[in-house]
Amino acid sequence: MMKHILLPIDGSECALRAVAAANEMALAFGAKVTLLYVIPDPRKEGVIQGQEAMILSESKAAPLARQHLEKAQKSLDPGIQTAISLQKGVVSRTIEKEAASNDYDFIVMGTEGMGSALKRLLLGSVTRHVLEHVTIPVLVIR
């Protein structure tokens, strides 16, 4: 029985399609949905930036992440019990740890995120990592 869905999002169109799929699943099974937004930590993701650029991007990341979480939460049916989690770290490993540390039955996530081709490549590898390392079923939305 599916009681708790983990829904990692990043604000991309693909993630919004994953929200819609999770909405349908949660309604069908009466499941709770936890929306997860992971702010990438450039120091841990292997991205080299100047310190000033890194501080600027980090100061803008949290408010933007909260906006994406709130938008996704509002797009879910009001009858669905939801929770929000905003974390910082290596995106793929943070999703893996979150999936292992809580009582999730299922993950719904998009195949690619927002941004440049390089960012899409990195986020595509996030999906691949999750598929290879979690022990619960994953629905990947394109």
UniProtKB/TrEMBL annotation:
CDD domains to which the protein is assigned, alphabetical: USP-like
| Entry similarity comment | Belongs to the universal stress protein A family.
Could you identify this protein by its name?
A: Universal stress protein
Q: Which organism is it from?
A: Peptococcus simiae
* Alphabetical list of Pfam families matching this protein: Usp
The UspA domain sits at 1-142
Among InterPro entries, the record links this protein to: Rossmann-like_a/b/a_fold, Universal_stress_UspA, UspA
